[in-house]
Amino acid sequence: EAGVVQSPRYKIIEKKQPVAFWCNPISGHNTLYWYLQNLGQGPELLIRYENEEAVDDSQLPKDRFSAERLKGVDSTLKIQPAELGDSAVYLCASSLEGSYNEQFFGPGTRLTVL
Amino acid sequence: GENVEQHPSTLSVQEGDSAVIKCTYSDSASNYFPWYKQELGKGPQLIIDIRSNVGEKKDQRIAVTLNKTAKHFSLHITETQPEDSAVYFCAARPYGGATNKLIFGTGTLLAVQP
């Protein structure tokens, strides 16, 4: 069974440029999460989707970050414009619906903003 | 909101020894506590979890204990092996309907010396 797929794996951009990350969850997982992981820290939830609906986006900086999950499968996270402080790893995870279901993480996208 | 503290931040043990990582949480209503292992360049992977109605759970060389009164839980790895070297994260899930939101600790870098 294929795991969570993310692309690109690495991205280097200059500040003020836009950037987008893509995630393909495990087949059949209707819950999708985007996390931010700063160096030496644990993942922090940015947004959670149940199918195509964003049910928790309280931690998403909406002035520059946006996300979408069209058709309730793949998802894209965008930053525009990027700032130096956005340099981090962006993790995507998916799970079956339900409180105790395991979250499966992708390998992440490492973003460097110069 | 929920806050999770994790100690130690780094841990070095000799192969064959035991390793213990401890976490405390602030929200007494939290009811689910997973542990994740993250290897370099990969996303976190669930290794064991425990629900609030259980005091201890074991899976081969790893075990987790939960003390709800003191609001802390611990990961125990026995007979450590070099392949156990990784960053370990604890997490807690605040109680709140069907949400599967996890609050992660800051991680413990475990180094198993052969």
How many beta-strand elements of chain A? 11
Q: Give the % helix of chain B.
A: under 10%
How much of the residues of chain A is beta strand, in percent? Answer: over 45%
Classify the oligomer: heterodimer
Structural class estimated from helices and strands of chain A: mainly beta
What is the helical fraction of chain A, as a range of percent? under 10%
Shape of chain A: globular
What portion of residues of chain B belong to β-strands? over 45%
Terminal CA distance of chain A reads 37 Å
The end-to-end distance of chain B, rounded to whole angstroms, is: 41 Å
Question: What is the CA-based Rg of chain A, rounded?
Answer: 13 Å
Give the integer mean of the pLDDT values of chain B. 93
Structural class of chain B: mainly beta
Secondary-structure element order of chain A, N to C:
EEEEEEEEEEE
Low-confidence regions of chain B: none
Number of strands of chain B: 11
Characterize the main sheet of chain B. 6 strands, mixed
- Which shape of chain B, going by the Cα principal axes? globular
Give me the Rg of chain B, rounded: 14 Å
Descriptors for this entry?
A: 114 residues; mainly beta; seven-stranded mixed β-sheet; four-stranded antiparallel β-sheet; 11 strands; 0% helix; B: 114 residues; six-stranded mixed β-sheet; five-stranded antiparallel β-sheet; globular
Descriptive notes:
The complex is a heterodimer of chains A (114) and B (114). Helices cover 0% and strands 48% of the residues of chain A. Chain A has strands at 5-7, 10-13, 19-24, 31-37, 44-50, 53-56, 65-68, 75-79, 88-95, 104-105, 109-113. The model of chain B has no long low-confidence stretch (mean pLDDT 93). Chain B starts with a strand and ends with a strand. Chain B is globular. Chain B has strands at 4-7, 10-14, 19-25, 32-38, 45-51, 56-59, 62-67, 72-77, 86-92, 103-104, 108-113. Chain A binds chain B through residues 4, 31, 40-45, 48, 55-56, 91, 93, 95, 97-108, and chain B through 4, 6, 32, 34, 36, 41-46, 49, 51, 89, 91, 93, 98-102, 104-107.
